[in-house]
């Protein structure tokens, strides 16, 4: 088992997961199908939230109680959350530019943007993984265990699994092929990346889940499982080739929700902890007495293995086809690729 789903709140935890999973799918559909939907969710809404965030920090700097006690200020103040929110939103905007051919996105060189923004997002997470690994090592030297308290008052358990998963994340960047193979679906609902097939999606999902499990453990039930499975589900059933757009959209929308309503995950009947916390609770005021990092290690190894295998397949195919896998598409014989291209040509 990965999470503590039992007791009187188990029903709420499962309901919360279903609500997040279904909600992300619905909002993604609303945001991707029309220009108005995309403009509202990825331009107007982030602009309004930026004003809100700045107001909170200005108020906190002035000592205002309403700001100092604001859940966003108390629970979501790390550099990572803001970096992730705005990097994901930038990706959504860039993807809209590509599918609607706005401005500089009309130029062929702009097709490399999806690779660049995804790589940036991955590196942000890799940096956070390495940070936790370092802090865990420092805590071990100082206190005899690996627990360290984040700026958001969450006890994290840093260890070798952070380093292994960070390496998997770096490899995942090199598993993105066909950088210039970016298309628009005929109805202009989606930016398509056909060479990003199920192989990459599996490797990415394993790596990213482990990232959340390591570094956002109190949120991983939602931002790990529900958030990752929503775009994968859509890509598998009705949106072939649009996975990376689905991923960016759902990530940005989830970050906005979590940044404004952090108590949904942190202090409600929907809160769900991983098995790491063998004390059964996560109380910032009390240092945990023990930990069970078994699954952190297992998933880190699986993530690294998956990315090594996918990268090996890419190297093998590129040699056989005598192609540069980044300048050219190498999965053209795969069903995923062909279905995505059919969408570019027919719908």
From TrEMBL:
Coiled coil (residue ranges): none
UniProt KW Membrane keyword: yes
Pfam families to which the protein is assigned, alphabetical: DUF5692
Stretches that traverse the bilayer: 12-31, 38-59, 79-98, 110-128, 160-179, 191-207, 219-239, 251-277, 297-315
Annotated InterPro entries: DUF5692 (IPR043747)
UniProt keywords, alphabetically: Membrane, Transmembrane, Transmembrane helix
Protein name: DUF5692 family protein
């Amino acid at each position: 088992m990965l999470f503590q789903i039992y007791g009187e709140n188990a029903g709420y935890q499962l309901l919360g997961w279903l609500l997040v999973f279904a909600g992300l799918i619905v909002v993604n559909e609303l945001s991707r199908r029309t220009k108005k939907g995309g403009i509202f969710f990825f331009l107007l809404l982030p602009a309004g939230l930026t004003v809100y965030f700045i107001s909170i920090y200005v108020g906190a700097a002035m000592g205002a109680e309403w700001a100092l006690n604001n859940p966003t200020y108390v629970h979501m103040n790390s550099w990572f959350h803001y970096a992730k929110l705005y990097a994901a939103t930038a990706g959504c905007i860039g993807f809209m530019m590509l599918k609607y051919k706005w401005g500089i996105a009309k130029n062929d060189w702009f097709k490399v943007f999806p690779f660049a923004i995804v790589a940036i997002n991955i590196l942000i997470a890799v940096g956070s993984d390495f940070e936790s690994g370092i802090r865990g090592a420092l805590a071990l030297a100082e206190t005899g265990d690996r627990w360290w308290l984040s700026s958001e008052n969450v006890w994290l358990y840093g260890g070798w699994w952070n380093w292994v998963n960070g390496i998997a994340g770096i490899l995942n960047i090199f598993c993105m092929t066909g950088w210039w193979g970016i298309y628009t679906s005929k109805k202009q609902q989606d930016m398509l990346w056909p060479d990003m097939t199920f192989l990459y999606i599996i490797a990415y999902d394993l790596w990213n889940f482990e990232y959340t499990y390591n570094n956002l453990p109190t949120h991983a039930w939602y931002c790990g499982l529900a958030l990752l499975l929503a775009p994968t589900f859509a890509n598998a059933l009705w949106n072939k080739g649009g996975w990376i757009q689905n991923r960016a959209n759902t990530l940005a929308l989830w970050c906005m929700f979590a940044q404004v309503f952090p108590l949904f995950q942190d202090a409600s009947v929907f809160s769900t902890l991983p098995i790491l916390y063998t004390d059964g609770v996560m109380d910032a005021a009390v240092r945990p007495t023990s930990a069970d990092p078994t699954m952190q290690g297992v998933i880190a190894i699986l993530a690294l293995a998956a990315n090594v295998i996918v990268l090996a397949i890419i190297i093998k195919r590129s040699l056989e086809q005598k192609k540069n896998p980044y300048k050219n598409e190498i999965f053209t014989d795969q069903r995923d690729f062909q279905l995505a291209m059919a969408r570019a040509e027919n719908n």
